[in-house]
Amino acid sequence: MLLRAPTPEQLASVLRGQRRASKMTQKQAAALVGLLPKTISALESDPERGSVGSLYKLLSALGLELVLQPKAGTTSTSGSEW
Predict the structure, then answer these.
(1) In the chain, which ranges are E strands?
(2) What average pLDDT does this structure show over 16-39?
(3) What is the pTM of this model?
């Protein structure tokens, strides 16, 4: 299943929805990866305030991974050009 989150608000919604679908509380998700429940809450309400490291930890707790791809209608650059 592909989950799209092109905006911070949509990312927050996806994170919250996936946690709830996993039947986990914020406290349970936080304990699973060594975060505070308030960090989970922040990522689910305003992900721009959270750190990339915390985001990756929450993704891990939810069994998700971050995949980057070009936006529709744009051309891709190969990793060798970075």
Answers:
(1) none
(2) 97
(3) 0.83
